[in-house]
Phosphoribosylamine--glycine ligase (Deinococcus aquiradiocola), 411 residues
Amino acid sequence: MGGGGREHAIVDALTRSSSVTGVVCTPGNPGIAALARCVPGAQDPAAVAALAVGEGVDLVVVGPEGPLAEGVVDALQAAGVPAFGPSRDASRLEGDKAWSKAFMARHGIPTARYRSFEDLPGALAYALEQPLPVVVKDAGLRAGKGVTICHAHDEAREALTAIFSQDGAAAVIEEFMTGQEVSVLAFADGVRAVQMLPSQDHKTIHEGDTGPMTGGMGVICPFPLTDADRTSVQSGILDLVMAGMAAEGLPFVGVLYAGLMLTPDGPKVVEFNARFGDPEAEAVLPLLTGDLGEITLACAQGRLDPGMVTFAAGASAVVILAAPGYPGEPQRGVPLTLPVAGEGERIYQAGTALQGEQLVSAGGRVLAVQASADTLALALGRAYRLVERVGFEGAQFRRDIGGRIGLTPEA
């Protein structure tokens, strides 16, 4: 399920899996259509379940967070179709940040100090008393863009006013944590969580981590996480989530995505997501040597073996090409010319469409340009050279991916 760059990467990995004989994608995109049969149409749970039954599929892999929150996995399970993804109630770990923070508090999972609010006056009174910077989050699903790091109290007032202009709104106000951010995605089967390679996304539109938040502008993988931190993340975060969710009658199946801050006091949770990250998937999955079809089916059936989850040596880098105007009103219909990617290079399509025979932009983040190499610096160099060969007038992209850990692209 899905039609973005993440889903292009998932379909690409599934088609490389010896266990998979064919892939149907709904709704898909022009890039995915080169690998799978795309079926456009309704994306509500009942329609997806009907499609899965009609196609006789053995497994449904859900890409985006929206259908999870709407209960697509519940509908598929009721129809007897195995699904890789959490139930509607389990997906609250991502879909309701206030619930998620309370869950972390209940189970002793390290995270930033916070308060949740369902009214603007209370939220404003609290925010204006907090030291700066302060973090304001929309408690609902906002595609990774409902977070504002406020360096002035007026910014907090503006962010909260925008949140509470929506019906049924809620906000989370957090202390600002310092350190390196890292994304740790894990395959989860309801009982155990098996880590994938750690990665680092770059969230803001402009270089130097400035400008508005986006869904993500580039990724390095693997992030150089120490063995001690990996162990701490497993025992002190992932295992506690899996045990806590099971204890509350919400066994978690799918991708457990822990967005972390490596603070002076150790790894702490910034937020959880309940699916593959986008664009983390585009960086992590090209290095997966395990059979993604086998892994996802094992998760859906509660029998994941950690030995299934294997990765190649080396590194991967992704540079996102976004449309002019993003993250505001992206320009659509910009002609795109894609070069032929070489070995270890991929161009995943995210916000694209066909106008006749011409590929054009059709969203905010349009292309994810990926390259693999022996080292991160070499992978970055390859990715940026591939970016230079893409025809996309006015494309926005960051030239400092990897800069937070001192990386510079190598030829």
Notes: Residues 113-175 form a domain with the Dna Ligase; domain 1 fold (CATH 3.30.1490.20). The first strand starts at residue 24 and ends at 25. The two ends are 37 Å apart (CA to CA).
